[in-house]
Design brief:
Layout lengths: L4 H41 L5 H24 L2 H16 L10 H38 L3 H9 L4 H31 L11 H12 L3 H29 L6
Helix pairs in contact: 1-2, 1-4, 1-6, 1-7, 1-8, 2-4, 3-4, 4-6, 5-6, 6-8, 7-8
């Protein structure tokens, strides 16, 4: 059975639009996921030596961070997308009285951007859980003497983390962060289940209209391959650029 090139050409604008949407939600998911992961990773490492503070830090920082990381690393992303879109979003954004947004604005967001918002939230939360562990491992890989030297100079904990620990740890975290970005790019295809018009949704639409399997799915496979190779090249360049001062 030969390839019908007309199917590819006819649906190429949809594939390109889906590719742009895939890149958008991946980039936004990685950015928000990195922010979430940074705070969750630091919360996992928070501690207090004595008294009541020891238990307060555990209750308000370490345990919530551990619960969040365990849940999002231990459950399928597919299920998380469904929970966010069908359970959480109606509570947050609802024309009849959402916790965050209500009225006409909520109605407009749900009708035009509901799937996009849900997809970004789910991808960001999932990525944040994995990135939190990357940050935790990267921070713990830095010799404790670095932090002790900073404190001996009068630097606060926040300044020590900001100027001493995290910049050094970041170089070691680049490879796993790059791998997480690539995984998120591929996993973004799961948001098609809630109707977000990314590449997998475009391929499914083309298949439904033409009953052709090879053309749409091979096409988006090539798109995914090009994107992942591009991300791999970018990560390799960042490793060479920022990893020069790392002592291994």
């Amino acid at each position: 059975m030969g390839i019908r090139w007309d199917v590819i050409s006819d649906y190429m604008p949809m594939f390109l639009q889906g590719a742009v949407m895939t890149l958008e939600i991946t980039v936004i998911g990685v950015l928000f996921g990195t922010l979430i992961g940074l705070f969750a990773g630091i919360a996992r490492l928070a501690y207090a030596k004595y008294g009541l503070g020891k238990y307060l830090v555990a209750i308000f920082f370490r345990w919530p961070a551990l619960l969040y990381i365990t849940f999002f690393r231990g459950t399928p992303l597919f299920v998380q997308i469904l929970i966010v879109h069908f359970a959480i979003m109606p509570l947050l954004i609802n024309p009849d009285g959402g916790w965050l947004i209500a009225g006409d604005l909520a109605r407009e967001i749900k009708s035009e951007h509901g799937a996009l918002v849900s997809g970004i939230i789910a991808l960001s939360l999932n990525a944040g859980a994995y990135i939190a562990e990357i940050f935790r491992a990267g921070i713990q890989s830095i010799d404790i003497g670095q932090a002790e030297a900073a404190r001996s100079l009068g630097m606060t904990y926040s300044k020590t983390m900001r100027f001493i620990i995290i910049p050094q740890a970041f170089r070691r975290m680049l490879p796993p962060l790059g791998n997480e970005a690539i995984m998120l790019l591929k996993d973004s295809s799961l948001v098609s289940v809630i109707g977000l018009a990314e590449m997998a949704f475009a391929a499914k639409s083309a298949f439904g209209a033409t009953s052709r399997v090879w053309e749409p799915y091979i096409t988006i496979s090539i798109f995914y391959l090009v994107m992942t190779l591009g991300l791999s090249v970018l990560v390799s360049w960042l490793e060479r650029r920022y990893g020069k001062g790392d002592i291994r």
